[in-house]
Specification:
binds adenosine-3',5'-cyclic-monophosphate; alpha+beta; 4-stranded antiparallel sheet; 138 residues
Length: 138
């Protein structure tokens, strides 16, 4: 059993895509171990995306991620990290495979609706950023 962090970003929440995204997650057979809405401060968004601090899109990304409420979830199941990333599709929606969430819903490389951890170490950091262990249903 593996865990990953999933975010429905502020664009996804604002556009009323929460139900659709959750339906696809459940359809994939991943279990939601924890879920909540957060409206990140700029400081929280900067901490979450600290690995991207030197990237040219960092300012814009952290402004976007703190622009409105997002839904954060812990997803659980076999190969949860890879399976959630496959369902999301490539970061750039123009390169995302047919049938993926980003291909279907994203409008922009930044406003790409969803986020997922890319490795077990990042998943541990990202889950711990939003949830303590008592909030996660095993
Ligand atoms: P995410 O998977 O959350 O990881 C980093 C985020 O930075 C990415 O999704 C996009 O929202 C955003 N981003 C903006 N521009 C780029 C870019 N050129 N390359 C990668 N990520 C970008």
């Amino acid at each position: 059993m593996e865990q990953t962090l999933s975010i429905i970003k502020p664009d996804g929440v604002a556009r009323g895509l929460v139900g659709k995204v959750i339906q696809r997650i459940e359809g994939l057979g991943l279990k939601i171990g924890a879920i909540k809405m957060v409206h990140m401060s700029r400081f929280q968004a900067e901490g979450f995306y600290a690995v991207h601090r030197e990237r040219p899109f960092f300012e814009s990304l952290t402004a976007f991620m703190s622009s409105g409420p997002a839904v954060v979830m812990v997803l659980q199941g076999e190969n949860a990290i890879a399976r959630w990333r496959e369902l999301m599709g490539a970061t750039d929606y123009r390169k995302a495979a047919e049938g993926t969430l980003r291909r279907e819903f994203a409008t922009d490389i930044e406003k790409n609706v969803v986020h997922g951890s890319d490795a077990p170490e990042t998943a541990a950091f990202e889950i711990g950023y939003f949830f303590n262990r008592f909030e996660i249903i095993a």
